[in-house]
Design a protein that fits this description.
There is one protein chain. By secondary structure, this protein is of the alpha/beta class. The N terminus is likely disordered. It has a single domain, classed as Rossmann fold (3-Layer(aba) Sandwich), CATH 3.40.50.2020. Strands 1, 4, 5, 6, 7, 8, 10 and 12 form an 8-stranded mixed sheet that branches. The chain has a 3-stranded parallel sheet with strand order 9-11-13. Strands 2-3 form a two-stranded antiparallel ribbon. 32% of the residues lie in helices and 28% in strands.
């Protein structure tokens, strides 16, 4: 069984920012209520997205300040946000605060508790890709099945550049995603120890959807 220290993959980016680590500790706490949990998810997502979008291309754009013209930059590519329902919803608002012009497309998957494999139940993507960069938002990278299936859907849609932005990953999920999607960077706040027999990340934080929406 892999451990965080034994897993070194070029595609994987684990944030070491002190604010991320502090907020993640509060997020894991079983006594954190849903309202605070949602706020922490959004705050961590903001910090991770800041790091994940550091290499997005820009075009030169000139604006006029009250004193003089200024040559600055605007994002060159259109960005799409793809939250994996339902836990990924909590990361969308944070992403839109950073990129208000981003498009949001939803893909619904649920995990078969017997096989641990993802089953798609909702997909409202248009017939062809409308963005150049897709950010897949999903707090927990456990088995990697849902992330891999989502990225497969996006590639068939015509997406050329895809990044996965999560919060906590298990080594098993990272290996599965890298094996299936070798060109997709993975940005997370933490790489945990392992999956348990039910496919939950240990130590993890429990079910991210239940904890966000108070349905556990």
């Amino acid at each position: 069984m892999g451990t965080p220290r034994q897993l070194s993959i070029e595609q994987l980016h684990v944030s070491s920012h002190p604010l991320v680590r502090e907020k993640l500790t509060r997020l894991r706490d079983e006594t954190t209520p849903p309202k605070i949990f949602r706020e922490l998810v959004a705050e961590i997502a903001t910090l991770l997205l800041y790091e994940a979008t550091a290499d997005l291309p820009t075009d030169e754009r000139e604006v006029k300040t009250p004193l003089a013209p200024y040559k600055g930059a605007r994002l060159k590519d259109k960005v799409g946000l793809i939250p994996v329902l339902r836990a990924g919803i909590g990361m969308v608002e944070a992403a839109l605060e950073l990129m208000p012009e981003a498009q949001v497309w939803h893909i619904g998957l649920f995990r078969d508790e017997r096989t641990l494999r993802p089953i798609e139940y909702y997909n409202k993507l248009p017939s062809s890709a409308t963005v150049q960069v897709c950010l897949v938002l999903d707090p927990m990278l456990a088995t990697g099945g849902s992330a891999t299936a989502t990225i497969d859907v996006l590639k068939k849609w015509g997406a050329k550049r895809i990044k996965y932005v999560g919060i906590i990953a298990a080594p098993e999920g990272v290996r599965a995603l890298v094996s299936a999607q070798h060109d997709v960077p993975i940005h997370v706040a933490a790489l945990d120890e392992r999956l348990n027999e039910k496919g939950y990340i240990v130590p993890g934080l429990g079910d991210a959807g239940d904890r966000q929406f108070g349905t556990g």
